[in-house]
Amino acid sequence: MKLNYQPAIAIVAAFLLQTTLAPHIRVGGVQPDFLLIVVVTYGFLEGPVVGSVCGFFAGLLQDLLLMTTLGLNALSKTLVGYLSGMVEQKVFSENFVLPMLAIFATTLISESIFLALRATLGESISLIRASRSIVLPAATYNAVLAGLCYPVLARVLKRQTRTQSRSGELDGAFAPTLQRVRKK
Amino acid sequence: MYARWSRRNRVLLIILVVVSVVFLSLYFRENKQGILHRGQSVGLAIISPVQRVASAVISPFSHAWRFVSRIGYLSSQNVDLKKENARLRQQLVDRNELQAESERLRALVGFKQRTGYETVAATVVGRPPSNWEQTVIINAGSSQGIKPEMPVVVADGLVGQVARVSPWSSEVQLIIDQRSGVGALVQTTRDTGVVDGDINAELHLDFIPKNSRARIGDVVITSGYGGVFPKGLFVGTISDIKEPTYSLFKEIEVRSEVDFSRLEDVIIITNPPRTVDREPVDR
């Protein structure tokens, strides 16, 4: 079984975008969560195992390098990655509305878990205010960004499918997805 | 779908969650010098230069993005600021107006306190429709006790006398009107004469003999002759003196300190002392 580095590369790329680009494209005080989008995407594509592993390492990287409480993002993104993997894989399609809704929902879940964990650790947080000023705007922003990204991702994946099917490389972490896309 | 809930998946999830919770627990248990905190510090040291470079590259685009994303907000803010600016400008105008009015009224009150006359304050509400008359309309009339021939003054000096009266307003004949005449004297030399107006709205002091020692700059006040104006009201200062050969008297020009074109608030003296027998003032 060949080891696939693509999720790792995607997570590092998303992390670089998160640390460099995201702070500069704030809208209404919130910035997009590129790492979350990547984690959820892999969850949709590859199921709960890949989703949760991606979520764990993406969150851990975020915690380590962004000075947040170590384990907070790792835990919340692990759960979201797993949950997104549980969703029917029909979500991933060229129809960008479903992925948008899915990203919106998963962002709500992720941010809620994050909020709940922080509250559990003793931080005084107004849930209503946090929801209004951070959670909902962030979910909307991520959903819009996902709507813009998904058509591009779908095309890339189709091209990759054709290339790999010709060379017979259908094993690895993306094998189920590639087989599914090829069937279409 | 059902296969996704396999035992393997659940075990993996539990392991990852437990590891995360262990990280959380260790992080809170250790002090700032602990291995996890130091790991974060190393991470920060690694990521900072990347962020700095990225920030330098992205900043121009970021500024452009911020500009575009704030256009709507800036537009509405611009409208709000314009409204606020208009409101503040009006407030400033009102405030300046109040201040000017306050200064005028303070001067008028000062005049009343200095002289001890009974007075009625009034505001100029109208100008004559003709170029030939130097009069103003004030908003005080017989209902306020105003009567014809009552002297009208401001803090800068004599203005004129009440010419006509109605219940709520009066017409004041200014001393610069060509039909006006005011018994006056030169304060230093005590030479008496009559200050009258002319068609150019200038003041002249007539009937001052050629042997008078009146000089430019001397103060001219009311003499009290004629019974209309009480003695001692400031009329003006001598601005020019001529001695025509064909006349027995000097030709003296008097400059009033009153700006007759900008009269706003005036005082009517309602109890002028009648120390001298009346003489007709209008000629």
What features would you describe in this structure?
The complex is a heterodimer of chains A (184) and B (283). Mean pLDDT of chain A is 75; it is low at 168-178. The longest helix of chain A has 41 residues, at 127-167. Chain A is 73% helix and 0% strand. The relative contact order of chain A is 0.14. Chain A has helices at residues 6-20, 34-46, 48-65, 72-86, 97-120, 127-167, 175-183. Chain A is globular. Chain A has a single domain, classed as Arp2/3 complex 21 kDa subunit ARPC3. With 184 residues, chain A is an all-alpha fold. Chain B starts with 6 loop residues before the first helix and ends in a 14-residue tail after the last strand. In chain B, 36% of the residues lie in helices and 24% in strands. Chain B has 3 helices and 12 strands; from the N terminus they run H-H-H-E-E-E-E-E-E-E-E-E-E-E-E. The longest helix of chain B is centred in the first third of the chain and has 45 residues, at 71-115. Chain B has 3 domains: 2-67, no CATH class; 77-116; 119-269, Thrombin, subunit H (Beta Barrel), CATH 2.40.10.340. By secondary structure, chain B is of the alpha+beta class. The model of chain B is unreliable at 276-283 (pLDDT under 50). Chain B has helices spanning 7-29, 35-69, 71-115; strands spanning 119-126, 135-138, 151-154, 157-165, 170-174, 181-186, 192-197, 203-206, 219-222, 234-242, 251-255, 265-269. Chain B is rod-shaped and about 130 Å long. In chain B, a hairpin with a 4-residue loop joins strand 4 and strand 5. In chain B, the strands form 2 sheets. A 6-stranded antiparallel barrel of chain B has the order 1-2-5-4-3-12. In chain B, strands 6-7-8-11-10-9 form a 6-stranded antiparallel beta barrel. The relative contact order of chain B is 0.11. The chains are: A mainly alpha (184), B alpha+beta (283). Chains A and B meet through helix 1, helix 3 and helix 4 of A and helix 1 and helix 2 of B.
